[in-house]
Amino acid sequence: xxxxxxxxxxxxxxxxxxxxxxxxxxxxxxxxxxxxxxxxxxxxxxxxxxxxxxxxxxxxxxxxxxxxxxxxxxxxxxxxxxxxxxxxxxxxxxxxxxxxxxxxxxxxxxxxxxxxxxxxxxxxxxxxxxxxxxxxxxxxxxxxxxxxxxxxxxxxxxxxxxxxxxxxxxxxxxxxxxx
Length: 179
Known about the structure:
mainly beta, eight-stranded antiparallel beta barrel, 3 helices, 9 strands
């Protein structure tokens, strides 16, 4: 069983740029995205150096706090991924940056299109209780907010949210869900 232990944070500013180790443009399509939390995703990644890569990923519902869930990921041929992306009813694109922050495997996503200007940092941990130093630019924890999962954002992009709720989230207001 492959466990994903991940915390997510809203990011403000661009101080994170000094920690970039690599970058890639990701295209994601959701072939299945059920209300119960099961997703089947196809993803392609293009980097400046190197061949494009592609994966098929199954994610299952997780713990009540959204911190731990099962994830199964398989490399697939690029041509298959492109065909599957065309079939996916819900898609999104983003730039992903690998960051050299301590405490875990950090990445940062800068969403494009209808999910811009959302910027989210994620850290994969070895243990749910692992202590973590959260960088100052991570202004609000998003872990467990399913409306901000990539699958949810592909179905209901940020720009389709009611303006008060969208602006409250982007400001990092702790009560953004109530707006």
